[in-house]
Amino acid sequence: MMMALPRDSACPVVGFLYSANGYCKEIRSRKYGSWYSCCPLHGTRTKAVHPKRSYYCSLDLDIFQEKEREGILYSFPVSNYSARCRFVIYAKEIPIEIHSPPVGLKSEEYLKINPLGKVPALWLADNNITLVESEVINEYLIDKYMHVSPSFIPKTAEKRALARLASRLYDLYIGPYQYGLYRDVSTMEERKSCFESGRRGLEILERVIQATPFVAGERISLGDVALFPSLLFWVYLAPRYYNWYPLEDLPKLSGWFHFMKTESAAAERVYKEVMEGLETWEKNGRFERMGLKQRMT
Fold first, then answer.
1. How many CB atoms lie within 10 A of CB 124?
2. Which regions of 30-143 does DSSP assign to beta strands (E)?
3. Predicted local distance difference test score (pLDDT) of residue 291
4. In 70-156, which ranges are continuous DSSP H helix?
5. How far is 296 from 55, CA to CA, in rounded Å?
6. Which residue numbers in the chain have pLDDT < 50?
7. Cα distance between residue 45 and residue 133, in whole Å
8. Domain ranges of the chain
9. Whole-number Å distance between alpha carbons of 175 and 133
10. Beta-strand (E) ranges in the chain?
């Protein structure tokens, strides 16, 4: 049985074919001349491979939505700054592809995309520009997709300021020292100094956040997005190598962190990606090579 649709060259052709698993909806795009199927019984959906357009099957409404590929986010799964951007992309279901940098961060190919040679970087398809720095990227995504929930914007000016404060405190007083947890440093004194500076920053955050249940109250914000993947590094590394248990010493951050782990599918996905990255580093001997085999006392 075929459904009659307007003869618009860009309009997908929709029909139903019987298979052993039941009726599967078939889509053919006259514009691109390719077939894609979506089976209602199993909830699977298949997207086109056209470089800029993808067709998604809406099982509950029996309609098809054409989504533009908005761009590419260059990211590493273990990167806490990249994870901030992935969190927003996952939560809003933005049609942005996520790739690792081609060849490597300092490769000639990637430096043409991001001259800083860092992640994250967001290439935008419509105007061929690249945004860098996680905070800039997330502000763009929130502005561009303001109509898509969640907004990541608290209701009041005070709570919006508190969310920005939490993110800024991390970026100024914790993030600059986090490298000392797991990278090569010149001396053990440098590592100890980084650890103590980062711990003091977390103790300040403990006093600032509301954790009711989010950083700035009842609505998720970029403060939560900034802190969650970064705190994973401290939760994973501090007990193993620094004889410090942040989730025992910082009760508000602990309650907030445990809530965030299962707050949404986006949070669960980010948690899994970063934790698997840290576990892979440990399995491959990265921390041992960096001199973290023995705990600091």
1. 15
2. 34-38, 53-58, 63-68, 71-74, 96-99, 121-124, 129-132
3. 86
4. 80-92, 108-113, 134-144
5. 53
6. 1-66
7. 33
8. 12-68, 71-144, 157-289
9. 13
10. 12-19, 22-29, 34-38, 53-58, 63-68, 71-74, 96-99, 121-124, 129-132
Token pair 């990211």: residue:
75
Beta bridge partners of 58: 63
Phi, psi of 73 (to 5 degrees): -95, 120
Name every residue whose Cβ is closer than 8 Å to that of residue 111 and which is 6 or more positions away in sequence: 117
Helix (H/G/I), strand (E/B), else coil: 2? strand
pLDDT of residue 195: 97
Hey, what's the torsion of the CAs at 225, 228, 234, 240, to 10 degrees? -140
**What's the topology of domain 157-289?**
Glutathione S-transferase Yfyf (Class Pi); Chain A, domain 2 (1.20.1050)
pTM of the model: 0.78
Residue holding tokens 């908005």? 70
Q: What is the Cα–Cα distance from 159 to 123, expressed in whole angstroms?
A: 31
Tell me which CATH code domain 71-144 carries: 3.40.30.10
pLDDT at residue 294 in the model: 57
| Matching residue, tokens 């967001």 | 122
Residue-level pLDDT at 292: 84
Q: pLDDT tens digits for 50-61?
A: 344 443 333 333
Give residue for tokens 């403060």. Answer: 223
Q: Six-digit token pair at 162?
A: 């508190």
Q: In what order do the strands lie in the sheet containing 71-74?
A: 96-99, 71-74, 121-124, 129-132
Residue type (1 letter), 110: Y
189, amino acid identity: E
pLDDT digits over 119-128, tens only?
999 999 999 9
The residue whose two tokens read 């053990």 is 188
